[in-house]
């Protein structure tokens, strides 16, 4: 899973300052082109990783494939950040990165690669889109005396109704059910990703988002590799039997899925607004469903399409409302501060 972490709170340079610095060094149109290309990257690349995972695990063990992918991508990104002057992380930084990497990559991505053995890639993306629903629910439970706003409650009800519609019995809404065990694993994977995202907000991670991401990849990749060893999935694996398609998909996941995708995401956090960046959460499953149907001939039924639309609609409601609340909070803080400077 390459669901990125919009909910992280690393130290991000002021957006206006970042934009002005970019304006001083390059034409405005150039920055706009970079932003457009970055959005295109996280929309299409991250939306296509679900299909790439399915192709990769056709002849590669799931946990071993994912572990190797993140170890290679994480090590390359970590080396790049250190060469660019990032300070060496502390032991506390590595401990936090291991916890976050375990929740996001072992629990989250590990659940995805395992479940895609039985669940179509498009539906996998749809179920993983429930991460914002879990985020909203977990934040509510952390502050049990605070009643969630009506739009959040509405989004939760709609979203989980869509999940029930997608994985429920055939009698509920006709044919088109998916593997129940795989669907359950994906729901738990989404929950693990949400918990990891919340934990990362206050975790003792390095101030550099790229360095933190690289450390989480290395730690999560190591845990996924360990899971491969413990599960003995590698016992019957013959590297010589790896298909060319799986190998190409594996390389795609390392280079574009991890390296290009994550760097584009970090760039957008600096150059755009969180509300706009969050749109990837409901564009990715649409891309994944289309690619799964067009390339892998994955079945599309009226039931699955309707359930996907319901879940995506719920995510839109929640992410839009949360973005508006965050913007209002920042505005309320900024106005008194500006008045004080006057």
Count of alpha and pi helical runs: 14
Q: Which quaternary structure do these chains form?
A: single chain
Distance between the termini: 48 Å
Name the shape in a single word. Answer: globular
Strand content is under 5%
* Radius of gyration based on Cα positions: 20 Å
The average pLDDT score comes to 82
Look at the helices and sheets and give the structural class: mainly alpha
* Largest sheet features: none
What is the succession of H and E elements?
A: HHHHHHHHHHHHHH
Number-wise, the strands total 0
Helical residue percent?
Answer: over 70%
In the predicted model, the low-confidence regions spanning at least 5 consecutive residues are 2-27, 333-342
How would you explain this protein's 3D organization?
- The protein is mainly α and 342 residues long.
- The protein has a domain at 12-60 and 239-300.
- 77% of the residues lie in helices and 0% in strands.
- The protein has 14 helices and no strands.
- It has helices at residues 15-25, 28-56, 62-83, 91-115, 121-128, 131-142, 150-167, 170-173, 180-202, 209-231, 244-271, 274-277, 280-295, 302-341.
- The radius of gyration is 20 Å and the shape is globular.
- The chain starts with 14 loop residues before the first helix and ends with a helix.
- Mean pLDDT is 82; it is low at 2-27 and 333-342.
């Amino acid at each position: 899973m390459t669901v990125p972490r919009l909910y992280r709170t690393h130290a991000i340079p002021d957006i206006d300052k970042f934009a002005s610095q970019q304006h001083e060094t390059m034409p405005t149109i150039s920055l706009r082109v970079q932003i457009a290309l970055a959005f295109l990257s996280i929309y299409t690349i991250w939306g296509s990783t679900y299909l790439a995972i399915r192709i990769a695990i056709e002849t590669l063990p799931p946990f071993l494939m994912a572990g190797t992918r993140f170890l290679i991508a994480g090590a390359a990104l970590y080396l790049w950040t250190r060469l660019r002057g990032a300070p060496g992380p502390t032991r506390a930084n590595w401990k936090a990165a291991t916890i976050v990497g375990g929740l996001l990559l072992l629990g989250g991505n590990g659940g995805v690669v395992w479940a895609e053995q039985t669940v179509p890639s498009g539906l996998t993306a749809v179920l993983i889109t429930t991460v914002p629903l879990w985020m909203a629910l977990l934040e509510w439970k952390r502050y049990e005396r605070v009643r969630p706003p009506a739009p959040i409650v509405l989004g939760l009800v709609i979203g989980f109704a869509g999940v029930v519609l997608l994985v429920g019995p055939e009698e509920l809404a006709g044919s088109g059910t998916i593997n129940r065990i795989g669907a359950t694993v994906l729901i738990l994977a989404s929950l693990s990703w949400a918990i990891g995202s919340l934990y990362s907000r206050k975790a003792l991670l390095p101030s550099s988002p790229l360095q933190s991401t690289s450390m989480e990849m290395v730690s999560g990749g190591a845990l996924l590799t360990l899971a491969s060893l413990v599960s003995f999935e590698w016992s019957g694996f013959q590297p010589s039997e790896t298909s060319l398609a799986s190998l190409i998909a594996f390389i795609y996941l390392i280079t574009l899925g991890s390296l290009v995708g994550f760097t584009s995401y970090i760039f957008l956090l600096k150059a755009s607004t969180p509300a706009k960046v969050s749109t990837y959460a409901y564009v990715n499953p649409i891309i994944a469903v289309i690619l799964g149907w067009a390339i892998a001939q994955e079945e599309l039924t009226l039931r699955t399409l309707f359930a996907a639309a319901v879940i995506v609609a719920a995510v839109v409601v929640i992410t839009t409302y949360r973005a508006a609340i965050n913007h209002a909070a920042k505005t309320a803080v900024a106005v008194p501060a500006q008045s004080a400077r006057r």
